[in-house]
Amino acid sequence: MKAGFINIFGLPNAGKSTLLNALMEEKLAIVSPKVQTTRHRIKGILTTDRYQLVFSDTPGIITPKYKLHEKMMEAVRSALEDADLALLLVDGRDQWQAAHDIFSSLKLKVPALVIFNKIDLLPKEKIEEGVAFFTAAPYAKEVITVSALSGIPRKKLINTLLKYIPEADPFFNGEDISDLQTRFFVGELIRETLYSLTQDELPYHTAVSVRDYQEKTELCRITADIIVQRETQKAILIGEGGSMIKKIGTAARKSIESFIGQKVYLELFIKVKPKWRDSELYLKEYGY
């Protein structure tokens, strides 16, 4: 039996959440083309009779501008300390030097594989150049090319990862797929809906707090608050005649029902909390 922790690092929008979901064959991390979608460290636990791999999706590495960003980078730093293997994900279309500088600054003490992503969007020559560039990096044990969006060679990739994982007893119950509660994922699915349906800047000013989660036999009742910074943002989320909040509620409810496999009654409330992103009290209340 092999068991170990595999942590995924990279710049914003490199495809970390998509990779985690593909490896797990479960939607654990929300996905959006907007940067800074992932705010927490999300663990996915993959268990078979041969191995248990505990993957961690971490926030994209950025320079903090306010306390929320600082909390996100704390999640990255904590992930540096407990890995058996690091996956360094790079969008092949990005500036490779910027990714290289970030990967070098991590000062990893464990083996690292560079996952060169989005090869479906690159010509063959560019892929070969990228592989050569990262193969020369001192932190890279191997460079693996993938397209997380159009499909990764999952079995082959997992077999490669297992070469670097020690023999050990499982850390988690074999039925667990994450160490986080269902209500966390419910909040994330609501937030994903906000990213999908609202204007570019609005999602960065919002948080979601699941206030009540009651799982009954026939119906799951959920009450959640959407936190914004200004009254004008609240007005946008409500929409004309309540049209936008109704749209958000309907789309979020369908996502949650698909995730938990049960009918859902969802109530959403919008609350204005000025400067919540810089408030230690609010950040703790909202789970950061």
Using brief descriptors, characterize the structure shown.
single chain, 288 residues, alpha/beta, Rossmann fold, GMP Synthetase, Chain A, domain 3, six-stranded mixed beta sheet, three-stranded mixed beta sheet
Describe what this molecule looks like in 3D.
There is one protein chain. The protein is of the alpha/beta class and 288 residues long. The protein folds into two domains: 2-162, P-loop containing nucleotide triphosphate hydrolases (Rossmann fold, 3-Layer(aba) Sandwich); 182-285, K homology (KH) domain (GMP Synthetase, Chain A, domain 3), CATH 3.30.300. 35% of the residues lie in helices and 24% in strands. The longest helix has 18 residues, at 243-260.
Concise synopsis of the structure shown:
With 288 residues, the protein is of the alpha/beta class. It has helices spanning 16-24, 67-80, 96-105, 124-135, 154-162, 182-197, 231-238, 243-260, 280-285; strands at residues 2-10, 42-47, 51-57, 85-91, 112-117, 140-145, 207-215, 220-228, 264-272.
General form? globular
What CATH calls the topology of the largest domain is: Rossmann fold
Helix content: 25-40%
Strand order of the largest sheet: 2-3-1-4-5-6
CATH class of the largest domain: Alpha Beta
Number of helices: 9
* Content-based structural category: alpha/beta
CATH superfamily of the largest domain: P-loop containing nucleotide triphosphate hydrolases
Please identify, by name, the CATH architecture of the largest domain: 3-Layer(aba) Sandwich
Radius of gyration over C-alpha positions, nearest whole angstrom: 20 Å
SSE order, one letter for each helix or strand: EHEEHEHEHEHHEEHHEH
Average per-residue pLDDT, rounded, comes to 85
- Tell me the number of structural domains: 2
- Sheet with most strands: 6 strands, mixed
End-to-end span in angstroms?
A: 34 Å
Q: How many β-strand runs?
A: 9
What percentage of the residues does DSSP assign to strands (E)? 15-25%
Low-confidence stretches: none
